Amino acid sequence: MILHLALLVGLVLFSVLAILARDLIKSAICLAAASLLLGIIFFRMGAPYAGVFEISVVAGLITVLFILTIALTKTEGDVRESKLVRMVFPLFFVIFALIDALVMKGLLAKIPMLESAARGGTFSDVLWRERTFDLVGQIAVILAGVFAVLALFRKRDPHD
Amino acid sequence: MIFLYLALPLAVAAVLPLVGKVSKKTLPDLLGNATMAFLLVYTATGAKSLLAGGPLVQRLDWFGETVNLQVALDGFGLFMLLAVQLVSLAVGLFSIDYMEHYGAKANYYALLLVMVAGMNGLILSTDLFNIYIFLEVAAVASYALVAYGLEHDELEASFKYLMLSVVASAAILVAVAVLFGMTGGLSFAAVAEGLKTLPARGVVAVCSALFLMGFGLKAALVPFHAWLPDAHPSAPAPISAVLSGLLIKVSGVYALTRIFFNIFGLTPALSQVLMWTAAVSVVVAAFLALGQKDIKRMLAYSSVSQVGYIVLGIGLGTPLGLAGGLFHLLNHALAKGLLFLNSGSVQQATGTRDLEEMGGLARRMPVTAGTSLVGALSVAGVPPLGGFWSKLLIIIALVQAGEGVLAVIAVLASVLTLWYYLILQRKAFFGKLNERWRDVREAPFWMAAATVVLALLVIGMGILFASVLRTWIQPAADVLTRGF
């Protein structure tokens, strides 16, 4: 229980740091740390596949992409944020934490316990047999992403 | 074979970039428009007869293996599909000439088709998580399309749109997760069934609020509208037409209506919240539209206001209110699509979007001016055009339900609507011809043709409103009043 609590607190802490950090590299590393903790939580709650994806893709792959991109771009002077913007996030965070503390416990008590093991059998069964339509959607999202990159990074052809 | 609505645009989109290597313009134009034309013809002929025996559920096998590829179609879905295919075909035709100077046409059509596939997928899905995924498909394609011109303000508008849209998606996803946690199911039927047996009114209220915020942002209801007047004018005109004509309705109004009517069931409290949010949108956005100098910004604020009318009718929840709201959805999709396309013609001819600089363009661009007048009068609710009948139905329904205050608001706001559309027409098309525009020419063939087709449809909706109401709107409204 204490370990679980520590993991959750760490998750929230690193997520907040990721938003508040001024340095983009530090921000990316904090995000990776947060998703590593989230991955461990997934493992402990009996969702190994979610844990594996969270750690390999979000903590690993995406962090590498972030850091590569940051390394490839040049810093051209600091962009100063207005004070208002800096105030907004902590304010929202406090409000959210308050609502969370007041409402969530009551809500969670009402939610019936569902069996934790996947009903449909193994991971591949669930993915291929039950959530197949999601996969079509995923393919479409990937297509949209690829076309978006092609469109936004295209060279404008003077003959067009 | 309703899976085609999803598979065909995706398959064509996937090969388009390769086709673009061979032929830069002709083949992408042809493939893109042929796909959309096929889907429209299929909707109007084939799919309609499929529904004769009631709602349809299709399941696909993957090379003999049973997989869960399930799509469903009912009257409401078919009606939305019709609106999507109608406007997207007009937009595709308009793009043939309009997108010439943007370049990379194959890529443009690919994104447009992915967006159409996303909207079709959303309409056909029977499951909360599928709704979320297809919402994202359409949204990701639309971010790229808003920024398609690659100028500074287009990129900025796209970024703002992206940020607010992500907030909306997060709210929707949290609500879906909570519902899944409570009921153990994601399909509409399973969640609705699960909620019946649970004593969890508080949780449903929280989820309703999250959905209202998420889909309200997607539909750009006041106070969640801040992104739309930036995003919609910045996009290339045909994309503005799809965004304002379709996307806010499919990913906002349709999804909201499906969930509130077919899963939660419309409670009196929810109905009041929806109607008053809508009424605020109608009035606030109408006033904001009045003060605009940019033709596309004015149209964008008008969209916020008109989506308010649609939600007002649907939120009322009576059979007449639903019919009025849905009919207004179709009328607004056609008329606003038309008006945005016309604004594109004007911008291409004159190089400006500023209403103050225009004037007297009707002499140089008679087709654009004429079709624009038809669209404007329909949205403003002038008889005998479609918009008049749909607003009339909404107002009668409000009066019948004893919502006199809302009915008065709806009437007064439609006077405001007429006012700003007359300002638009007068400043852009009537009056003395500004000397600068002496050499301006009418829009090229395909652009003019697309607007003429839409204008004829807008007129047709008005004249044939009784039969449109009977064949398309009534089956859709019936699905909502009956529930699942």
List key phrases describing it:
heterodimer, A: 160 residues, mainly alpha, Four Helix Bundle (Hemerythrin (Met), subunit A), 6 helices, 0% strand, globular, B: 484 residues, two-stranded antiparallel sheet, 3% strand
The helix/strand series of chain A, from N terminus to C terminus, equals HHHHHH
Which spans of chain B of ≥5 residues are poorly predicted at pLDDT below 50?
none
Q: Describe the global form of chain A.
A: globular
Fold-level CATH name of the domain at 1-73 in chain A: Four Helix Bundle (Hemerythrin (Met), subunit A)
Query: Biggest interface and which pair forms it?
Result: A-B, 32 and 53 residues
Number of E strands of chain B? 2
CATH architecture of the domain at 1-73 in chain A: Up-down Bundle
The largest pleated sheet of chain A is described as: none
**Rg over alpha carbons of chain A:** 21 Å
Helical proportion of chain B?
over 70%
- Please, what is the average pLDDT of chain A? 81
Q: Could you tell me how far the N terminus lies from the C terminus of chain B, measured between alpha carbons in angstroms?
A: 22 Å
What share of residues of chain A is helical?
A: over 70%
Helix and strand composition category of chain A = mainly alpha
Q: Strand portion of chain B, in percent?
A: under 5%
| CATH hierarchy, class of the domain at 1-73 in chain A | Mainly Alpha
Tell me the structural class of chain B: mainly alpha
Shape, per Cα inertia axes of chain B: globular
- Give a short account of the largest sheet of chain B: 2 strands, antiparallel
Determine the strand fraction of chain A and express it as a percent band.
under 5%
Number of strands of chain A: 0
Task: Describe the structure concisely for a colleague.
The complex is a heterodimer of chains A (160) and B (484). With 160 residues, chain A is mainly α. Chain A has helices at 2-20, 24-44, 48-72, 83-110, 123-130, 132-152.
